[in-house]
Design goal:
Helices cover 36% and strands 15% of the residues. It is of the alpha/beta class. An 8-stranded parallel sheet has the order 11-10-9-8-7-6-5-12.
């Protein structure tokens, strides 16, 4: 493992602020962490093989932690790159000297000031990590969990679902792996499970190319392992080219009582999503890749998805996720956030869920169900998981504690 530590020195800057806090006379750190050789990244089956952590420190010595789910090199460049003009400003320079407690203003300044390069995609993904860190700072400064600052507790507990990721390179290994994970989740008290069933299509990570009858066979096996009382969600990872192709298979899945089917077709195929909503025997979920409320508005109003899946590490952070949730609720849609990163993002997602009354589940895996090293080692999450439920966080900010030894071990930039 080659380690290239990177610290960005920040010059003093004096600003007028209503707060005693400011991002000044400090360092902003952006760490890229990887648990496998770089050459193996393109073949990885899980996004938790790498992470980008943003640490923002204030003049009062408070550190805020954030994480985003996109290429860490691209996100790092977006934050650090020098600006060129008013439409393409440097994110780092926008932050220096600013009041970290005025999060809405900072979000708008970064979004507008980087619009030519950012506005969607990786730029907004990178903003998500910055936004997350700012909310962590604010919670620590005011000695409150983030969900209280977002508007308070809307739920007494949050129900997480276990995401099942198969291993194996044959159909039988794949199916048996998912069944074993389902049984493990059941034994740990999970009330809901989401199973990847990606036996074909652009993201068939295991290299399989099975027909759709095999997909149905796996769905049936997982449902049998769980029994009738645990909610089952299925993620086929953009398996089919359009609704016509998808419906040939999923129209017969009513017997499996699936809570939702995630990303059956390509995200941009709005017409197919609308047809899936009209004709499929289960709710349709999507949105893991989307950034900003504007993309969600299109998918909700025109794609007619039933379940919106903002990822706080992609959509624009907690600030934007809150607006997406509000729009979803106004249009009678359910929120089930996507989150496939470390305890940093998971803790942010939990705080978001406690403030979101239309949030039915969140994605969560305890360490004993993970094979991903960063998920296990990078940080401890800021909540307790008891009897299949996540209890309200009590620690200030996101409530997480970073493992500095893990950062030293896996940092590459």
């Amino acid at each position: 493992m080659i380690i290239f530590p990177k610290t960005i020195p920040i010059a003093d800057k004096v600003v007028k602020s209503n707060s005693c806090f400011a991002i000044l006379n400090c360092t902003i750190k952006i760490w890229i962490l990887i648990t496998a050789p770089i050459i193996a990244i393109s073949k990885a089956i899980s996004g938790t093989i790498h992470s980008k952590i943003v640490i923002i420190k204030t003049n009062e010595g408070i550190e805020g932690y954030g994480e985003c789910d996109t290429s860490p090199w691209v996100a790092k460049a977006f934050i650090e790159s020098p600006g060129t003009h008013t439409m393409d400003q440097c994110v780092k320079e926008i932050l220096i000297g600013s009041d970290p407690l005025n999060i809405d203003l900072l979000w708008e300044k970064i979004y507008v000031g980087t619009a030519m390069t950012g506005r969607r995609g990786a730029g907004v993904n990178a903003m998500s990590a910055v936004d997350m860190a700012l909310w962590d700072i604010k919670g620590k400064a005011l000695n409150k969990p983030v969900y209280e600052l977002l508007g308070g507790k809307e739920q007494d507990f949050v129900v997480p679902y276990a995401s099942l990721q198969p291993v194996g390179h044959s159909f039988e290994e794949y199916k048996d792996s998912l069944v074993a994970w389902a049984e493990k989740a059941k034994s740990l008290g999970f009330k809901a499970v989401k199973s990847e069933v990606t036996l074909n299509g652009p993201y068939a990570h295991s290299g399989l190319h099975e027909n759709d009858d095999k997909t149905t066979e796996v769905v049936a096996a997982v449902r049998k392992a769980l029994g009738p009382d645990i909610e089952l969600m299925i993620d086929v990872q953009y398996r089919w080219k359009d609704a016509e192709e998808a419906l040939r298979t999923v129209k017969d899945w009513a017997e499996f009582n699936i809570y939702f089917l995630e990303t059956p077709v390509w995200t941009d195929d709005i017409k197919s999503y609308a047809r899936m909503h009209d004709e499929a025997p289960m709710k349709i979920a999507a949105g893991e890749w989307l950034s900003t409320r504007y993309e969600f508005e299109d998918l909700i109003l025109n794609g007619k998805i039933d379940v919106a899946q903002p990822d706080v590490g992609r959509c624009g952070g907690l600030t934007e996720a809150k607006k997406i949730a509000k729009f979803s609720q106004e249009n009678n849609r359910i929120i089930v956030p996507h989150c496939w990163k470390t305890s940093v993002s998971i803790s942010a997602t939990a705080n978001f869920a406690f403030n979101t009354s239309n949030c039915a589940f969140i994605e969560y895996l305890p360490p004993q169900m993970c094979v991903e090293i960063l998920r296990k080692e990078l940080a401890t999450e800021g909540f307790n998981f008891v009897d299949g439920k996540i209890l309200p966080p009590t620690k200030p900010g996101l409530g997480i504690e970073l493992n500095r030894e893990a950062i030293k071990k896996y940092q590459v930039a």
